[in-house]
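TOPIC: backbone geometry
CONTENTS: sequence, structure tokens:
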Amino acid sequence: MAVFGIVSSLYFFAVTVFDHSPKPDLTASPNYPSLDFRPMPSRDQVDSTLIRFQQGNETTWKHWFNDLDSFLDPYQESRQYADHFSQCDWSIPLYQKYVCVFELMMLGNNCTRENYYGYHKGRPCVVVKMNRIWGWEPLPYRPDDTLPDNMPTEVRQLVYSNPTRPQVWISCEGEVSSGMAMGIPQK
């Protein structure tokens, strides 16, 4: 009986851990898939995700630079041309075994390793990444769509000013008063 328990536990572990497809759980919020961001706070500052540093003081922003640099390292151009990478386009569906090539130049001139991702100038870069959920297909907003009434004005203007560029738009707002003190609009 003990052998059966061990074998069934190993089977459950293998099915849970080694299944290579993400499991979509959009029941709680079907319109908002999970987003992730970088840089993340250091382990001793996990109580807040607020990015705090002093412009001109490298010791206060070095962690943020290092964390973002480590996150972006796999996206260096030379590392994205294996069999499982694909050039993505809104008109061509992406198959489950592929991931899109992400070109770091899309982050702009300020958000480069050479420019310390803007931290030394007090203009920090933050990367927002949508976690992959197989079977979920994003529906981009286009200017001729009926846009949600609660869409922030800035995002609405971006949709209208980019008529040929379908993409998924997000807006970021502070949720707590400490974000307001730093100049982030409160949600």
